[in-house]
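Researcher: I'd like a structural prediction for the single chain below. Treat it as a standalone chain; there are no partners to consider.
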Amino acid sequence: MKSLRGEPVGLRLSSGTSPPGFRVKKYLGCGYESCGSYLVTERHSNLPRRLKLFHEADIEYEHIGHVAFTFDRLHRANSTPPYHRIGTWHHDKLGTFAYLVLGYVEGKPLVDLLAPGRWRRGSWSPNKALGILHAMAAKLAAVHDTGLAAGDFEHGYNVIIDKAGEPWWIDIDAGTPDEPNTDQESDVAMWFGLLDQLMAHTPESPLVTLMDRRLARIRKRKFRRGTMHDITAVMAKTLEAEG
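Model: Treating it as a single chain, here is the predicted structure.
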């Protein structure tokens, strides 16, 4: 991941080094624009949180506020974990950071669940895979109803599937305060890219092939608002008919 200034970023905090009020449990990786995401526990509640750090040299605090506002809006669309707060933290050796605190979603990254090896071992069925893509389509439809887009989930990155099979965007492309991300057409294209990954698996799944064929008309037509609602409806009808 690169910062807004084009410099490679990545920061691993030790368990004893964290903003006041939190305990670092595990490094989760670099997210979109951030220099590190961590599983932390909140000292006063002992609840797990996802903490995202942004170095002040890489990004403006105003932009962090915009990202937080966008997470809050998309949480109301039941697509992102809840936003808790933002703050700043100064470390004598590491520098000054802004941080964003979100709810922690326990689960597995969609990119791992889409891996062909899981299909070969029989641990993930086409029905379950399409069920998750259906849930993603429904959540994207709700996001698009707000006028915004999620962004940055190509190939299944930045989406966590919880134990109940619900997808959650744990990282988003919020755009900028002046130009929020409203590129819903790109969201649709990325979603179809996930379906293409299912189509590429061997042996071929008759159900996935059927779904791809029934969605072909939507894929080929010119983008229009409400496309994710159309995809959701076609998928629901097909999955219900196929049991």
